[in-house]
Amino acid sequence: METIESIEKQPSMKEPRPAFLTVLCVLSFVFIGFSLLFGLIGLAGGPMNEEQLLDYSVQLTKSADEMRSLDMESFAVMMEQIGRMTVSVNNHFYLNSIFSLIIIGSGLFGVIKMMQGHKIGFHLYIIYSLASIGQIYMFVSPADIPSFIVIFNLLISGIFILMYSRNLKWLS
Q1: Angle at 150 between CA 148 and CA 154, to 5 degrees
Q2: Is residue 11 part of a domain?
Q3: Domain total of the chain
Q4: Any domain includes 36
């Protein structure tokens, strides 16, 4: 009789991790892993020098002029914005790279916590998603950031946050 009561008093075993959560975490690990790898490679490579930056600007200007000749003004404006954004990011290269790596690390930690079943991982993932979108505004004027970049990143982040939220009942 005592053994039955002691078994009933023990906390129940947690359900196994949902397969959907595992798939989301693996996808996040792949994306975050590539981001971390490219971030470290970029940091090791350093910022573009003046000659490289000039060559890049000339190529973008040629592309923008070509877009204008094809009556694609919006694409030409976007190319010019990307050029100005690249110059701004290059001027703050090391600070931007360090912030990026910190943000990527928080995303990685959040996904690890969700894999372990902790709800705090979901909240860290939301912070990571928003910080990775908002980080560019620390170094680049909003007028120089193409809207499609922000909208695309918000859309992808929102979809992943929504999919992760479907697993909140399993997280504790």
Answers
A1: 115
A2: no
A3: 1
A4: yes
